[in-house]
Write a structure and sequence with these properties.
This protein is an alpha/beta fold. It has two domains: about 190 residues, Rossmann fold (3-Layer(aba) Sandwich), CATH 3.40.50; about 160 residues. The longest helix has 17 residues. It comes from Methanoregula formicica (strain DSM 22288 / NBRC 105244 / SMSP).
Length: about 375
């Protein structure tokens, strides 16, 4: 019988759709902006797949930190070993991790983002393998499954999975909100892995050839932009080059909106995007995959929600990436939170990688 420590960070990811770029220390502001929790839903999606698995016993926390998700899907083989207060915090995550460590769990399965991974690792280190169900705004660490379904497969196949060293990254939240990506290595965790089911840590490319490629992509995008269309432009340095080419300053780690060469909105949240697209007949989305990981939706751009993608249409999602970045990404990943929409992307998508140059890239969802 495998003993699985199970933690849900109930507020993970709440800051994404409202443009906060993170929820740590900003839960009340996220709520004020209308954010709603979704980590429980992500956890339940994984747990639904585990209802058929045999030989698993879950140790968890009371209420929204685990018990509610297990109960919601009808899993009965679990034990509540920690009860947090009414308002959960990082302290509760660390305390629960310490209880799991004391009780000798075989794996800690958590639902959250980089902050949750860091809190758990700070207690268990390399003594207990950890695996994340992705639910945060930022997931730069390598301990996350590519989506909830993959997390379930890894847990169900724990007997045959191998363990690998995975980076736990510490992201400076204040710098991130200000538009600067400042990361440091927090530690090296052990993570169960079956090829293709666990993300790797994000890579950032800063080379002369990269800058030239970004410029070529920007020039081509400017030439093919349709007059009257509303363009939603995701985060990243490649998309930044496009906006800069058009004469504007890009929110590097946020979402901006342009129309007819004019900046309509900077650092837009989901609510703003819904308002701006409500009466538009032609909406297009320009996004770039996260380096090394390959996610085009569901990581760092949750403002571009399934509702926004549907308003634009899959055919109006434009993916851009430099050749160097593409060569290190075996496939593109889509994890928007809506599995039906994810499947509509099909098996492959065209990626603009230069001036009038594109590659066809495999898509997995």
């Amino acid at each position: 019988m495998k003993r699985i420590g199970f933690i849900v960070n109930p507020v993970a990811g709440m800051g994404g759709s409202v443009g906060l770029k993170g929820t740590d220390g900003n839960v009340e502001e996220a709520k004020r902006r209308g954010a709603v929790p979704h980590a429980g839903e992500r956890a339940q999606r994984a747990l639904e797949q585990l209802k058929r698995a045999k030989g698993l016993c879950f140790l968890t926390c009371a209420g929204g930190m685990g018990e509610s998700s297990l109960s919601a899907v009808g899993l009965e083989n679990y034990q509540v070993v920690y009860a947090p207060g009414s308002e959960t915090s990082a302290h509760d995550t660390r305390t629960a991790a310490a209880v799991f460590l004391e009780k000798g769990v075989d794996l800690i399965l958590f639902c959250g983002g980089d902050g949750t991974a860091r809190d758990i690792f700070s207690i268990v280190g390399r003594d207990v393998p950890i695996l994340g169900i992705p639910a945060g705004v930022k997931m730069y660490s390598g301990v996350f499954a590519v989506n909830p379904d993959a997390a379930a497969e890894l847990v169900a196949g724990l007997d045959t999975a191998s363990l690998r060293d995975s980076e736990v990254m510490d992201v400076d939240e204040d710098a991130y909100r200000a538009g600067t990506l400042d990361t440091r290595l927090f530690g090296i965790a052990r993570t169960p892995v079956i090829r293709g089911m666990v993300a790797v840590s994000k890579q950032v490319y800063e080379q002369p050839d990269e800058e030239r490629a970004k410029g070529e992509i920007a020039q081509f995008i400017q030439e093919v932009m349709v007059p009257g269309a509303l363009y939603i432009i995701g985060a990243g340095t490649t998309t930044e080059a496009i906006v800069r080419y058009l004469g504007h300053k890009k929110t590097l780690l946020g979402v901006d909106v342009l129309k007819n060469g004019r900046l309509v909105a900077a650092d837009a949240d989901e609510k703003t995007l819904l308002r701006l697209t409500e009466r538009e007949k032609d909406v297009r989305i320009i996004i770039s995959p996260i380096g090394a990981q390959g996610f085009i939706l569901g990581r760092g751009n949750q403002q571009i929600s399934p509702a926004i993608v549907r308003r634009a249409g899959i055919g109006h999602v434009i993916v851009v990436a430099t050749p160097h970045k593409l060569q290190d990404i075996p496939e593109l990943l889509v994890d928007s939170g809506d599995p039906v929409l994810d499947r509509e992307f099909g098996d492959s998508i065209q990626v603009i990688c230069g001036y009038r140059i594109a590659q066809r890239k495999k898509v997995r969802h």
